[in-house]
Amino acid sequence: KAGVTQTPRYLIKTRGQQVTLSCSPISGHRSVSWYQQTPGQGLQFLFEYFSETQRNKGNFPGRFSGRQFSNSRSEMNVSTLELGDSALYLCAGRQGPSTGELFFGEGSRLTVL
Amino acid sequence: AQSVAQPEDQVNVAEGNPLTVKCTYSVSGNPYLFWYVQYPNRGLQFLLKYITGDNLVKGSYGFEAEFNKSQTSFHLKKPSALVSDSALYFCAVRDGSGLPWGSGGGADGLTFGKGTHLIIQP
Questions:
Q1: Facing A98 at nearest CB: one of B32, B45, B90
Q2: How far is B61 from B58, CA to CA, in rounded Å?
Q3: Alpha-carbon distance A71 to B75, whole Å?
Q4: How many angstroms separate the CA atoms of A56 and A34, rounded?
Q5: What is d(CA A83, CA B58) in angstroms, rounded to the nearest whole number?
Q6: Are B107 and B100 spatial neighbours (Cβ–Cβ below 8 Å)?
Q7: Distances from the Cα of A100 to the Cαs of A62, A63, A66, B9, B87, in angstroms?
Q8: What is the mean pLDDT of residues A35-60?
């Protein structure tokens, strides 16, 4: 079956712009989480969605937002981009309860100039 | 709050030798523990998990991990390393004592360690 699809894979933006990233989880995986990965901070949890509702949220400013659609696809948006937002943004799907493992996409690498 | 520590930024092992990647954790309730591997420019791949039961967990690619509750550790091991095992390894923990999944409560997702670069030398 198809894996987790993230688009775009690479993008370059300038400070002050906004960006939208997309994630399509594996079919049947209803929970979608987003993580930010940077060399300095490692992997940091952004938010988790299930059934179009945000279930958990990490410690990020309000510039970071997300949503989930009825087909489980998810988008995250970052407004008023800052240089420090340059990172690999990873999306992960989960099929069931919290005992289940995450299935990650290959990420969207954002560079902010 | 939950946390994970991977004390080594890098581990170097000769091919064919056993390898260990260390992980210690802290949670207030029962730990759900995971290991993931990341190859360059790729997402993370699941290796194995401990939820309950036998303390020795076997996973993908010949890896295993031992849960030690008294030492709050979950070290990743492999009896004989391959060059292709060279990658970035992450340990992660979730507090399993949170509210039922999907209720909006519980721990804030998985907490990952900083990662350990495993380098297998030919």
A1: B32
A2: 9
A3: 38
A4: 10
A5: 41
A6: no
A7: 28, 29, 22, 27, 23
A8: 90
Q: Lowest mean pLDDT: which of A23-32, B35-44, B105-114?
A: B105-114
Indicate left, alpha or beta for B106 from its phi (over 0: left) and psi (-120 to 50: alpha): left
Contact B94 A98 (CB under 8 A): yes
Q: Which residues contact B107 (CB under 8 A, 6 or more apart)?
A: A56, A98, B2, B27, B94, B95, B98
Q: Is A71 left (phi over 0), alpha (psi -120 to 50) or beta?
A: alpha
Which chain B residues are closer than 8 Å to A97 by Cβ? 100-102
DSSP string, A43-71: EEEEEEEETTEEEEE-S--TTEEEEE-TT
Measure CA of the first residue to CA of the last residue in chain B; give whole Å.
Answer: 41
For residue range B31-59, list pLDDT tens digits in order: 999 999 999 888 999 999 999 899 999 99
The answer, for B39 touching chain A at a CB cutoff of 8 Å, is no
Please list, residue by residue across B4-43, b when 16 or more beta carbons sit within 10 angstroms of its beta carbon and e when fewer do: bebeeeebebeeeeebebbbbbebeeebbbbbbbbeeeeb
Per DSSP, A16 falls in state T
Is the backbone peptide bond immediately before A61 cis, with ω within 30 degrees of 0?
no
